[in-house]
């Protein structure tokens, strides 16, 4: 039986792994900002490389598992918290904390819905659909990305989801390091800033992609 | 009645050693057959309950609060004295003994006082081992500060929350035993009567305050560590629940009450601001280390304190007591304040306060240093009054604080009822007619940690063949029936005045006639008034609800009905003592300069009062005090 | 001044409670919040109603017995203040004030505004102590402890056990209370010897009492009367992780 602290540790470790993945994902996707033809070949080669590599495959399974564990653990924690707490007739407790720190579950749900859309848009089509190939013979995922982001409402969904992700990450990184046990006041301050900078950079980077493509190819 | 204090043989230094050497012991295998009831879980109660359980006795601990950690020891701010002489300023056990005995105006037993000073050394060690975070210097060693009535620095402190930290140490020791099953804890249980079987204390009747159910608990000995009854004045520094009911009901079962009128009025509490007020918050005496007390030189002063120039201020303590100045003992400081206030120099909206000024200390030491020493007290002052004491002087006034009087106990802390012990503020033992600052935490702790574990065992050694005490004994039936009848009687009155009305009225009578200054006519009048008030109480008090559910008003009514009797005894006690000593200041007995005049020839004794029934005057017994080592001198702090 | 009160009335543990309206007039703004309740009770008693049961004792902010939700905030609008130290000057004339008990699965309501916080006692008895018996102590100067460490330990030890952290936590977590005691003791050399057993036992007891998880929203520190730092929680996590990795 896990204690409250162990459950939080599980959430922390899976969350940090997912956060680390986001950095790699972002770095790879920066190729989308290259000139169109160069971006197409580079990006498609990169996608082909990722899907063919055994090691990457292993990592991807860990990634899927992390998502599932993170979600299930969060559900268990939330349901236990709901059982522990009792509602007030008048509730102004919110004055003492940030709204996003109290609503990680809501933010997480939005992100999960986004993930489904995101997987359906790209991962599912790449894996199970049929795509044309580019001049190097790689599946032309780039074209799929461009086509998708020419729909304005997809751009809106993606950008808003990145806002949700950003707040989720700002509190998530901060909270995860607390769970790990970083308690020295000096480093705690520093880490709080670093975590926020990370969250903003990553989410801004991802949000720029649909906007950039919508503007440049639309 | 012969009051035998059972002081051990030997020189002053050897008495406690001699007792411990010859005290009877109980074999570890027999200890688990012996049950001890401890009422109260403050410093004295928690520490004795934990200590006895560690030794292997079966202990039941009771408190009326919802957790033992809330007992009022928690509120002691300034510190705890110990003759460690870590400061190398000439302190010693003997000097502490002298200071305490002199501070108490030579109205305490030499042997008891010496033992308290002696045990103070161990207490600091014990508390540190428990994790009490006493203030330390940068080198890592313990820090001390000075308190009223002494010229050395022997007060150990944990910011302004020393009582809290010491209590948490004792509470944690208690909870450790609760976790082991060695102590059974009954919080929210109030003792309503003592049960005697064959003349010995063998149990108590308690009421579960959450459910109203009465319960009986039997044991081989009963220890009362229920604190003081200063709340009798209604406005006091004590907690709302502090009461004298446990000791008073024991008194009615035969335990004598000693010196009930010796109540310390603390000089530095926050003044009353209106009729609605329920409590006067204490500002630690430690503030007098750096604060200077003054009133304006002119009556009817209307300027703000900071606008009054230095030469128009009267630093009356520094003026009257140059040797001790602002650190004069509590009784003297309080009386000096009352003298100025009565003379029309009081300040504040009700003209009932004096200034405590930190401007000089802040200028000399810097605000940061003052903040470190007293930050929490200044915060508390701001929260309660809305004023910033870093910018302007605090307003303070005297308030009822500590009862030096209590159940009469012998050297072994046993009352006149065999098997009934009283520890800490509930007994009268060590402070004489006036307690020195930072000695109350000390007394409560040493009683519980170091004295009672020996003396209670000494008593219990006679009970190893007694077997389990039966709580179905007729004596328990009788006691429970009496308690039930009393509750019914209170509920049946159904009058038109609240319990608080009676409590406030009684408090006012006592402040006026049995407070900082007393006189014969006033005390006689007060006795009549209290009797009338009591009569009125039993006719006109209104208590809502019933006795079989939670009922705070019923709890209060029980306590106030006892106060109405204790108050009368206090007046009898004050009236019978035709001298001024310590907190007891009879206006008829003072010098031309207004200082107290003690009368050693006639009153060098402890007054121990016997209950003679509700309609009879109490009976006085005397325990003569003998001073072999320190001859009584006139107490002067000039 | 005049106040419109909406006070939670509940007969006992099992009963359904509800908010009841009371109006008080001619109040002095220097009155404390609890004295205002005294005034209300006085009136209720004289008119034949049942007075409101509420927890209180020392009325100077140190015993930790008082505590209620005032307008949905633990101990009311002032930060780092107990209910007993709150005065009516913190409210405006004719204001409506909701008064409810601290609510949590682990703090059952006993009657009206009184709650059962004995869960805290059980957490302490599971390990919140130094295992030393009376009379075993070496001289207090045998182990020097630095000024800074002592002050840090004191900051944690200052907790008054009122339960505002639990009441204000959206998850009813007792992490601040539990961690404060763990850190008070682990910081001092006397408490270090049993640090592993202590943290594990206290965390397990905290869970057994059905308190929720800490989400690090940090609201508890804001409302704590003693301003106990949330970094205590981080340090408890460190101690717990450390204990798990070293446990045999």
Automatic annotation (TrEMBL), chain A:
The keyword Chaperone does not apply. The keyword Protein biosynthesis does not apply. Keywords: Membrane, Transmembrane, Transmembrane helix. It comes from the Bacteria. The chain crosses the membrane at residues 12-34, 54-78, 99-119, 152-170, 190-215. InterPro entries: Cytochrome_b-558, SQR/QFR_C/D. This is Succinate dehydrogenase cytochrome b subunit. It comes from Sphingobacterium faecale. The lineage of its organism: Bacteria, Pseudomonadati, Bacteroidota, Sphingobacteriia, Sphingobacteriales.
UniProtKB/TrEMBL annotation, chain B:
Keywords: Flavoprotein, Oxidoreductase. The keyword Transferase does not apply. InterPro entries: FAD-dep_OxRdtase_2_FAD-bd, FAD/NAD-bd_sf, Fum_R/Succ_DH_flav-like_C_sf, Fum_Rdtase/Succ_DH_flav-like_C, SdhA/FrdA/AprA, Succ_DH/Fum_Rdt_flav_su, Succ_DH/fumarate_Rdtase_cat_sf. It holds the Pfam family FAD_binding_2. The keyword Flavoprotein applies. SUPFAM superfamilies: FAD/NAD(P)-binding domain (SSF51905), Succinate dehydrogenase/fumarate reductase flavoprotein C-terminal domain (SSF46977), Succinate dehydrogenase/fumarate reductase flavoprotein, catalytic domain (SSF56425). It comes from the Bacteria. Its cofactor is FAD. PANTHER family: SUCCINATE DEHYDROGENASE 2 FLAVOPROTEIN SUBUNIT, SUCCINATE DEHYDROGENASE FLAVOPROTEIN SUBUNIT. This is Fumarate reductase/succinate dehydrogenase flavoprotein subunit. It comes from Sphingobacterium tabacisoli.
TrEMBL record, chain C:
Gene3D superfamilies: 3.10.20.30, Alpha-helical ferredoxin. Its cofactor is [3Fe-4S] cluster; [2Fe-2S] cluster. InterPro entries: 2Fe-2S_ferredoxin-like_sf, 2Fe2S_fd_BS, 4Fe4S_Fe-S-bd, Beta-grasp_dom_sf, Helical_ferredxn, SDH/FRD_Iron-Sulfur, Succ_DH/fum_Rdtase_N. Residues 150-179 form the 4Fe-4S ferredoxin-type domain. It comes from the Bacteria. It holds the Pfam family Fer4_8. Belongs to the succinate dehydrogenase/fumarate reductase iron-sulfur protein family. This is Succinate dehydrogenase/fumarate reductase iron-sulfur subunit. It comes from Sphingobacterium tabacisoli.
